[in-house]
Amino acid sequence: MNLIIFGATGTLGRVVVVQALEAGHNVTAFTRHSQFKYTQHPNLRVVQGDVLDGQKVEAAIEGHDAVFCALGAGRKGVVRAAGTQSILKGMKAQGVRRLICQTTLGAGNSAGNLNFFWKNIMFGMLLRPAFADHQMQESLIFKSDADWTVVRPAAFTDGSQTGAYKHGFSGASPDGLTLKISRADVAQFMLAQLKSDVYLHSAPGISN
User: Fold this and answer.
1) Which residues, other chains included, contact 130 with Cβ-Cβ below 8 Å and sequence gap of 6+?
2) Domain range for residue 41?
3) N or C: which end of the chain has fewer CB within 10 A?
4) How many folded domains does the chain comprise?
5) The pTM is what?
């Protein structure tokens, strides 16, 4: 498939790019970092631009089968929601419907999955702007007419791809969640949505 990945130079986006290439997809990596260098690959195209530039985003989306969104701005807000709005407008203009977007566990009806520390200290204080940005990001996606899947991962780790994680939960929390998951496992789960409609128009949580 022809895939475009926004947030392609972020800590998760890079892993999605690598795994997508390994799976044989043609990949466009959209990044604002003109100096960032990927390993050369015949199926990789790098487009430099700002996700808030609607014209640039729309032009980059043309000809793709699916869009991946892994936008991040650390503790800051704004970029995730505003960038996603730009992506949704570009998708609609280009007639591209499939969107797979990473947000965060704890957003929306998954708040009950968090423990006291994550709910009150991390998202309640330290990461409040980022969390609010994710909430707005999800709201925009849910109101869109795209064929979307929102993936809500727990805290990222640098572990290897295991495939041994829980997924599909929202309000009710499975027993024994660690509230951690490797970026490699999140990327694998996101790419798996290309072959499945199980989570179409759904927001599954994912965690070890």
Assistant:
1) 73, 74, 75, 76, 77, 80
2) 2-207
3) N
4) 1
5) 0.93
